[in-house]
Amino acid sequence: MSVCRAVVVACWVALGSIAAAGPAGAQERSAVRPGFTLPRGAAPILLLRPRIIVGAQSTAGLFQANADWTAQAREQIEAALAAAQRTLGNEVVRAPEAIGADTRLIADYQALFAVVARSVIDDQFFKRNRLPTKRRAGQFDWTLGPDVARIARGQGCGYALFVDTEDAYGSTGRKIFQVLAAVTVGVGVRSGEHTGYAGLVDLRTGDLVWLNADRQMGGDVRTPEGAAKRVAELLDGFPGRAEVPVTSVAAPKAR
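^ thats the sequence. predicted structure below, dont judge the formating
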C-alpha cells in the first residue's frame, strides 16, 4: 500500500469516529481566587522549572514526542521567562535543580498541577460543562493540598509559580485529514494542539490562587519569537503584575 493511500485510509477511519463531534474549546481562560490580592513586594515566588512537552500529531490525532523539539522549546521558553520575571512585581526565585527524592516530589506536583488545570478548563472555564458546584459567580476554589509546601523547603517563598506547556504540531497526514474532514463531511478538525497552563499556588494552604489556562495558545515555542509570545500569553493577567510594554518581554514580529 502506498504512503498516500495509507494516509487516506487512516483519515477515513478517524473520520468515522468524529463525524458527529463538533469543535470544543474553553470560553474562559483566567481566574483569581475570590478576595486574593498579591501586593507588589510580597513574599517571594518560587518559579519551578517549566514542564514542557513538544511533539507531532499523527493523522489519527495521536501524540508522538520529539526530543529535539522539546529541547529547543525548553531553551526558548526558559529564556523568555527569565526576561519576563521583572514584570511580575515580586521577587522571583528559581527553584534549584532537584536531585534524588526531590526530583520525584516536584514531578508529582507538576503532574498534579496539570491535572487540576485541565479540570478547571473542563469543569469551570468551559461554561457548557461547568459543574453545578462551580456555577456561582466569582467562584474559584481549587487546591493542590497543603503538602505542596514541601517543594519549597528552605527557599523562604510564599508562593509557587507552575508553568506547563504541551504542543503537538500537525503532521502532513493530519493536515490532509483536516482538509478531507472539511470537504467530505463538513467537520472541523484541528491540525495541532497547543495547550498552556500557568498557575500561582499559595504555599501556606496549597490553594490555587490564580490560573491562566487555554487549549488554543499561540506561538511556535521552538523559536525565540514564538516562545516570547507563549510566555506573554501564559502570564497575561498575573496578579500584581507590573505594567510594562509588551515589546519589552516579547521579541518583535518578523516582517
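The two ends are 43 Å apart (CA to CA).
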